[in-house]
Amino acid sequence: MTQNTLRFPVPGGIHVGIIMDGNGRWAHERQRPRSVGHRRGARAVRQVVEAAPDFGIGTLTLFAFSSDNWRRPGPEVRTLFRLFRTYLRAETEKCVREGVRLRVIGRRDRLPDDLLGAIDEAEAATHAGRKLFLRVALDYSARASILEAASRSNGALRDEDDFAAILGDVIHDAGPAPDLDLLIRTGGEQRLSDFLLWEAAYAELYFSPRHWPDFGPDGLGEAVEEFHRRERRFGRVTAEGNPAAEAIRREAAG
Ligand code: FPP
Q1: Active-site residue among 4, 21, 68, 113?
Q2: Is the CB of 45 under 6 A from ligand 1?
Q3: How many helices and strands, by DSSP H and E, does the chain display?
Q4: Residue closest to 50 by CA, chosen among 134, 148, 146
Q5: Chain centroid to CA 220: how far?
Q6: What is the C-alpha to C-alpha distance for residues 251 and 11, in angstroms, rounded to an integer?
Q7: How far apart, in whole angstroms, are the C-alpha atoms of residue 65 and residue 63?
Q8: Which residues, at least 6 apart from 3, have a Cβ–Cβ distance to it below 8 Å?
Q9: Atom of ligand 1 nearest to the CA of 42
Q10: How many C-beta neighbours within 10 Å does residue 200 have?
Q11: Which SS3 state, helix, strand or coil, does residue 145 take?
Q12: What is 14-140+178-253's CATH topology?
């Protein structure tokens, strides 16, 4: 599938989450330091964000740094934080121009001040973006956030939406996120690694053998195409009553 040839008329667009894995192996295969893999990974982020709206994606959540990633060597953690700060500073203007609203989700109390400053500026500047909601997960753990939301909820929950609202507050989101439609992991591993466990209850899973720096818009297009071939039943016997599937069928029928 090439860009711009398929329209996916799901109202508001689908929510895609990506576990961007394989930067280190990409670099290793080329006898380069891991930092080179991460830099190429940042380039891939730019390309994928740019392409996302053309694939009918309304919300894109990228797993950039898990709470478990603090276990990596200090120099690698610092390299990653420098890359995130540079990305935020360099991309903010473009995000405003392109209608991308950016939000960083996860813990904020352990991030360095200069990165926090860049996050605040990027979020404030892109606040009005409506074309794509880009969420970057930093110091994020789904389990820890669910645990924190459960302890804050104090037993006073009417339904799942109530819980999702508290979860949104815990991870500093702009509001409760839509459920995840498609969860992609690159780099050949097939696991969730503590990413969006609540939001992924009904997500379609897609695992790509490509390392993240090689995934790019082509990889994203293939994943979204595969997603639209799946029948999502949400517990039903058929896909009838599934608004996304119905919208696609209507569009196909002209
Ligand atoms: C996983 O590859 C990747 C990460 C832990 C970091 C993700 C960061 C980026 C893609 C770079 C920039 C991101 C933004 C948002 C600007 P790995 O290091 O675990 O690779 P490996 O499994 O091959 O060692």
Answers
A1: 21
A2: yes
A3: 8, 6
A4: 134
A5: 12
A6: 12
A7: 6
A8: 51, 54, 55, 217, 221
A9: 12
A10: 19
A11: helix
A12: Undecaprenyl pyrophosphate synthetase (3.40.1180)
Does the Cβ of 27 fall within 6 Å of ligand 1?
Answer: no
| 93 to 56, 87, 172: CA distances (angstroms) | 23, 11, 22
pLDDT per position in the chain (254 positions), as tens? 333 223 333 457 999 999 999 999 999 999 999 999 999 999 999 999 999 999 999 999 999 999 999 999 999 999 999 999 999 999 999 999 999 999 999 999 999 999 999 999 999 999 999 999 999 999 999 999 999 999 999 877 889 999 999 999 999 998 877 899 999 999 999 999 999 999 999 999 999 999 999 999 999 999 999 999 898 888 877 766 566 666 656 665 66
Number of C-alpha atoms within 13 angstroms, CB side, residue 7? 8
Structure tokens at 69: 């990633």
Evaluate: CB of 23 within 6 angstroms of ligand 1. Answer: yes
